[in-house]
Amino acid sequence: MSSVLQLKNVHKAFSGVPALAGVDAALSENSYVSLLGPSGSGKTTLLRVIAGFEQPDGGEILFAGQRIDGVPPHERGIGFVFQNFALFPHLSVAQNIAFGLENRALDPVADTKAVRAKVRDMVGLVGLTGLEDRAVTQISGGQKQRVALARTLVTEPSMVLLDEPLGALDANLRTRMRGELRTIRERCGVTFLHVTGSETEALAMGDTVLVLDGGRIAQSADAGTLYSRPASADVARFLNCYNIFPGAISGDAFESPVGRLALGGARQTSGKPAYAIRYDRVAIRPRDAAAAGDEVRIEASFVASEYSGAAINSFFTLDDGRVFEVETHLSHAAPEAFEEKARYALVWKREDALVFD
Amino acid sequence: MTMAATSHDTSVETAAHSTRKQPDRTAFLLAPGVLWMLLFLVAPILMMVYVSFWTQTTFKIEPTLTLKSWVAFFSSETYLGALWTTIRIWLIVLVSTLLVGYPAALFVGLFVKNKTLSTALLVLCVIPFWTSFLIRVLAWRPMLGKEGAINMILMKIGVITQPIEVLLFSELSVIIGMTQIYCVFMVGPIAFMLGRIEPSVIEAAQDLGAGFWRIFRTIILPLSMPGVVVGAIFVSVMVLGEFATSAALSGRKVNLLGNIIVTQVGSLKWAFAAVAGVVLTILMGAVVAALLRVVDLRKEL
User: Fold this and answer.
1) What angle do CA A79, A82, A83 make, to 5 degrees?
2) For the complex shown, is ipTM > 0.90?
3) d(CA A20, CA A27)
4) Which of A65, A140, A231, B98 has its CA 20 to 30 A from that of A312?
5) Model-level pTM?
């Protein structure tokens, strides 16, 4: 697959404070890419630089093989779906969708019939049939989201940037819109770059997930790889499913604040040593149970647990005060009752841990 | 509010209770305003209409009803001329305040991204109001006069050899003066409406491929129309009732309805003044009603 968008060493600073510190990325054609980053990581800035609302201080942006840094936003042909939708408040649903076709500087569609036909198709595609003549102030959040998307897609961009598109919707609608966004994208065959701060959203939506950290792309991988093999302790932290220990490797063990953890699993170079174990790879055993030879064992006191239907998350305090989380899937075992403040053994297989050095 | 109900049936009860209570409170809150308006606006207007039908003689006025003043007003070229001048100057000033005010408002309300700076700029627009109305009007005389600043500068740089006399004591000077004084009432409401347009809405239009003029015509202008209408109402009401600017800057050559009223009241011709007053009031009412038809302000604001 060829890439539709390439970013080469893109820099941007706001009054001296760097927001993007050398972003390199390539987005392939006809794919769903999610961009995950904590707030303040520069994700919105990156999106605005790609759309042309902000000028980068340095670096190159190539869109369909052409350099576009310096091209004004209305000549880029990149769609942008705003977080707050940014619908035109004085126009109806149909007029909002027709806006780009009728008013674009390059190749406007003057034929009213052609515009109407395209708008009708798009209204059908995003599921807004029957609402064409409504004012955009009189429709629900999910419908506004669809208008915003339809308004962009009808101009047939080869890439659409979505800035936290589901952030303004309630949880139920968010889950439903996830599926719909993917279906709509597949039908249009364009590349979506979906910015989000939610790791579940990023993993669920993206064919490829880019992780942005401190103004740089920290990892670019498919969801499965990202989840099981994060490239650094920081990426693992955003994924919100790893217990992470700082420390250093010495010999055949990792020296952590809670003791020596025997090595045995995958080791990755990331520049910052850390030891990470996934929440759902840890077993909780009574304190007197012995660990097998290929296992790592630490002790901790139980604090509380949180039931979420299919799984239960138990929280422990380690000897250094750190919180340790264990996720137990209830399809494997019935929930056990743990005693508050009692000590338990937390055990995992050596090979399940990720070690960064 | 007693609306915070704890259970279902008490909520019905309190709702009924509060609707019963509502009219009392409404009347109580409205009373001072209504009373004031009745005493000092509605009553004087009714009195003015009544007096316009009184019999006017040279030295006194009697409450004997007659149409004589009305007939005199509408058969006199002076009064009809004043009515026409009023309408003409109002239209010209309305257009010129819009032409000068809209770009200024566009700059302050939309292009200046910093809210503090845009507020500061709006305050700058109001600085002329820190001096009295008469000083503002009279300050135009040394500017526009035969030996005023503009003529002197133009003659110095050789654009003209004779001073332009039409600058002062003419309709032009009245229009220049009024535009300057009332422009800020156009800038304010328009800048306010423009400031309420979300930047992302304009960015969205850009992203969809529209250039600046397209965005201006299809997005910015329609969204600022309520501001234009409110500004136009401010300017219209003030210009239609004007008399001081024309008296000071036209050398009594431009007579507006306002000037007629002042002169008639000065010579104790109350009935004539009342007729002119009624005509002016009807004119203003018609103008405001027409402007309100342009935009549904209740919906837009």
Assistant:
1) 145
2) no
3) 17
4) A231
5) 0.81
Q: Do B209 and A75 touch (CB under 8 A)?
A: yes
Q: A238-277, pLDDT tens digit by residue?
A: 888 899 998 888 878 888 888 888 887 778 888 788 999 9
Cβ contact A89–B214 (<8 Å): no
Higher pLDDT, B128 or B203: B203
**What is the per-residue pLDDT across B39-61, written as a single tens digit (0 to 9) for each?**
999 999 999 999 999 988 877 88
Alpha-carbon distance of B35 to B44, in angstroms, equals: 13
Chain A closest CA to B194's CA: distance in Å?
A: 13
Q: What is the pLDDT of residues A118-154, one digit of tens each?
A: 999 999 888 888 999 999 999 988 899 899 999 999 9
Per-residue pLDDT, A215? 86
Which alpha helices (H) appear in chain B, and where do they start and end? 8-37, 43-51, 68-75, 77-106, 115-126, 133-138, 140-144, 149-156, 171-195, 199-207, 212-215, 221-240, 244-249, 257-266, 270-294, 297-300
Task: Say yes or no: B203 contacts chain A, CB-CB below 8 A.
Answer: yes
Q: Which of B200, B205, B223 sits opposite A84 (nearest CB)?
A: B200
Contacts of A100 in chain B (CB under 8 A): 208-210
Please tell me the distance in Å from B96's CA to the nearest CA on chain A: 27
- Kindly report which listed range (A246-250, B72-76, B281-285) carries the lowest average pLDDT score: A246-250
Instruction: With CA atoms as reference, report the closest residue to A195 among A76, A85, A82.
Output: A82
Q: Does residue A76 carry a pLDDT above 80?
A: yes
Residue with tokens 């952590």: A256
Which of B196, B197, B208, B295 is the best substitution to test chain A (most A C-beta atoms within 10 A)? B208
* DSSP H stretches of helix in A206-355: 223-228, 233-239
In A, minimum Cα distance to B225 occurs at A90
Token reading at B175: 């229009």
A153-188 per-residue burial string, b: 16 or more CB within 10 A, e: under 16: bbbebbbbbbbbbbebbeeebbeebbebbbebbeeb
